[in-house]
Amino acid sequence: MEKIAEKRRIVLVPIALQGHMNPMMQLGQALNLKGFAITVVVGESNLVSSSKDFPDFQFVPIQESIPVSQIQILGPVEFLKKLNRTSEASFKECIAQLLLQQGNDIACIIYDELMYFSEAAATEFKLPIVIFSTASATNQVCVRVLSKLDAKKFLIDIEDPEEQDKVVGNLHPLRYKHLPTWGMGPLEQFLEICRIVVNKRTASAVIINTASCLESSSLSWLNQELGIPVFPLGPLHITAASTNSSLLEEDMSCIEWLNKQKPRSVIYVSFGSKAHIETKEVLEMAWGLSNSNQPFLWVIRPESTPGLESLPEEVSKIVSAKGYIVKWAPQNEVLGHPAVGGFWSHCGWNSTLESIVEGVPLICRPFTGEQKLNAMYIESVWSVGIQIEGKVERGVVERAVKRLLVDEEGACMRERAHVLKDKLKASVRSGGSSYNALDELANYLEKK
Ligand code: UDX
User: Fold this and answer.
1) How far apart are CA 50 and CA 59, in angstroms?
2) Which domains, ranges and CATH numbers included, belong to the chain?
3) Which family does it belong to (predicted)?
4) CA 78 to ligand 1 center in whole angstroms
5) Ligand 1 in reach of 371 Cβ (< 6 A)
6) Which of 17, 192, 239, 297 has a CA between 20 and 30 Å from the CA of residue 433?
7) How far, in Å, is the centroid of ligand 1 from the Cα of 164?
8) Which of 53, 350, 360 to mutate to test the pocket of ligand 1 (most atoms within 8 A of CB)?
9) This model's pTM is above 0.90
10) Taking the alpha carbons of 207, 330, 258, 297 in that order, is the dihedral positive or negative?
11) Could you say which DSSP state residue 4 is in?
């Protein structure tokens, strides 16, 4: 697409959670490169951390109705309902101010699907609106299936193995037991939020951070079901490779440590920005990793292990012999480092994409929501990883690390991950499916 002579403005509405912020800022970067001006509307407390690396973007604060830290206290469903209820008025005010400042040049509002309050302002000011789903296309399918279920019947069906094993919408191997209800609080409330999120209301398109080589059947299903254009233009972190939207400070010293390790010898361990781990599990992990005799780089966010200020001395000693611990890592650099041979992950969608893009096989330990679904895809659809199920005990950890880094089985998974890596890289190159989808999106937005 030709660069647009006069820049049209896109307003982005991210939710300030790391796993959502990263792809939204990458999308902004990709659209900025296509010639659009970008405004990011974000809660006051995240303004500084989000704006420092994007000098070309305009950042506009909205009054923070409820800080994201409340998600742990209220639970995801109550938090989202409250956030949306209380943000609507301040967002309308914000858009009104933007229109006054800039004339009527907002091409479109693109909002994270969880920030559905954005729609009221779009309707009031007659602005086009597009939904951005930062998780997988298969998760979109699942949320849509869930939105049509009756909670009482589903709770009965959960007890019936035959019902649970039924395939969802001909999307083999996706079964009802994989629907991501895990850790989302009371089912009835979760289904209610699913119904709100999937209601596309006045949105004219949906953007998904995925590629057709990863999820072609789910994307076909969505194309048929939605009746509006779907743009699968990921993985966005390749398209917008220079983007850094980390809300936490990255500890770069781990790269120096990696430089001293043998090629493909290190297991990188990180469970994203939200997971909580019990002290007992951390200690079993420490023993298992050490007993595997492979070097390991381990991200332990201080708030991920409440009650564990530091590792007990005895454990600390064994850990420091083979491992390196940081509070937050430059994950993409780590995964792209030649010393890294495997990733023990919680299987958040970003981590999943980032690992495959570097051809790194995974050990999957999902915690909540769609992570279990991603883990199922990693293990059973793409065959680039193994799952740790049940209790995390040192013997299980040691075995999983050896399977991935030492055994022939791991080498085969790495080979398959490399094939997928090549496909993903091709999809964002000129003529590739995600490259074309981004082009089509830019053309579509230009006409809005
Ligand atoms: C959440 C959900 O858990 C996830 O399932 C959903 O798909 C998106 O929102 P999160 O748990 O944080 O996200 O996981 P993930 O999606 O993997 O995102 C984490 C991001 O933080 C990744 O982009 C990763 O590169 C980054 N990260 C993680 C770092 O930069 N450094 C780290 O040390 C760890």
Assistant:
1) 9
2) 9-134+200-234+428-446 (3.40.50.2000), 253-425 (3.40.50.2000)
3) Belongs to the UDP-glycosyltransferase family.
4) 22
5) yes
6) 17
7) 29
8) 350
9) yes
10) negative
11) P
